[in-house]
Amino acid sequence: MSTVSNLVVNQGATYETTVTVNDSAGTALDLTGYTAQAQVRKSYDSSTATNMTTTFHLVRTTGKITLTLTDTQTTALEWGRYVWDLLITSSGGTKTRVVEGIATITPSVSRS
Is residue 54, in this structure, part of any structural domain at all? Predict the structure, then answer.
């Protein structure tokens, strides 16, 4: 079962957050050999998605993955409520959704 974590993303600004993936005992999962994918969608059945950049920390045994949206990406998102999740895939091909939730995009006043 995945962890629920809701995000607040400021439209027009770079967004970054770090998540720690733990095993069933609550210990940081060794992410050596894993890949990751994170997406934001307007709804669960939306055909379009915004991909978050996923970056593993240098020491993969910490279980940490940083998720990033650029200012260009957040500008392109209309303000409102979205859904998001983070999926990891082991070297053996097992896919696990580890975090999911609501991403609230807050409107921006400043524009260039």
Answer: yes
20 phi, psi to nearest 5 deg:
-115, 125
Q: Measured between alpha carbons, how far is residue 67 from residues 24, 56, 92, 99 in Å? A: 22, 9, 23, 12
Residue 50 is assigned to a structural domain of this protein: yes
CA distance 74 to 84: 14
Tens digits of residue pLDDT in 67-82 = 999 999 999 999 999 9
Q: Strand (E) positions, the chain?
A: 3-4, 7-10, 15-20, 35-41, 50-56, 64-69, 80-89, 95-106
Percent of the chain residues past pLDDT 90, beyond the cut: 92
CB atoms within 10 A of CB 91: 9
pLDDT of amino acid 112: 67
Residue 35 sits in a domain whose CATH number is 2.60.40.10
d(CA 54, CA 99): 13
Cα(63)–Cα(51) distance, integer angstroms: 20
